[in-house]
Amino acid sequence: MSANERPVIDLSRDPNPGKPDHALPEGAPRHPLIDLSRDPNPGVADHARPDDED
After folding, report:
1. Cα four-point dihedral sign 22, 25, 27, 31
2. pLDDT (tens digit, 9 = 90+) per residue, 8-53?
3. 39/32 Cα distance (integer angstroms)
């Protein structure tokens, strides 16, 4: 596998299909260091790697 390839993930082994496993339980308090009020671009996924322009 080269440095820019992603590993293959077997989705048939997912114990909770369709549910993000990293999500907080409903009603759980947010981590005190995560302050979404300071986001300069709310609702915009500007943390993702830019698309390749070929």
Report:
1. negative
2. 888 788 887 877 777 778 888 877 787 778 888 887 877 777 777 6
3. 15
Q: In sequence order, which ranges of the chain are alpha helices (DSSP H)?
A: none
pTM of the entire predicted model: 0.26
Q: How far apart are CA 49 and CA 6, in angstroms?
A: 13
Q: How far is CA 40 from CA 11, 33, 48, in A?
A: 34, 16, 15
Nearest Cα neighbor of 21 from 8, 11, 6 is 11
Structure tokens at 3: 């440095």
